[in-house]
Design a protein that fits this description.
A hairpin with a 2-residue loop joins strand 7 and strand 8. It contains three helices and eleven strands. The chain is elongated. The protein has one domain: Elongation Factor Tu (Ef-tu), domain 3 (Beta Barrel). Helices cover about 15% and strands about 45% of the residues. The strands form three sheets. Strands 2-1-7-8-11 form a five-stranded antiparallel sheet, with helices on one face. Strands 3-6-10-9 form a four-stranded antiparallel sheet.
Amino acid sequence: MTDPQITLALTTTLPAPDGAVDFNDHTRFELLTRPNPGQRWRRESGTGRYVPGEALIVAVQDTAVLRFSVRVLGGTWADHTLNTQLMERALSRFSYSLTDVVEGVTRTWTRCQPADIVPREETDLQYAAGSRAFDISRGRDQYLITVRCDPQPVVEAS
């Protein structure tokens, strides 16, 4: 069995000078983990003083939270810095879409909000202590990205 071909492309809904950004092009970026948000609900319920438990009044799907990690690449430190800026610029837009393609199945999340972009060493102390010099000397760095967007992706199969 061969590994599935995975693409995570960001398409901005505002005019972008950079166009769509592919976070798994293996030239500027490598996708380390894919977004898989699951499903979350906002609930309102009522309780009574003499009634056990609670009664569900309404439940609506909450905003999806997409978490994924990306390795930023660059042959030189200048290339790496430019690629990092491209990623930050693309994910800082007020509204955009994220498209995830795996083996011909496309999921598109719309109305994505500006992303939280955190360097991996801020959340993983072993990573910070171990391989940072090796990665920095090769123009590589990893980021954990969190994006909030509409809960229902548009799914298409080709």
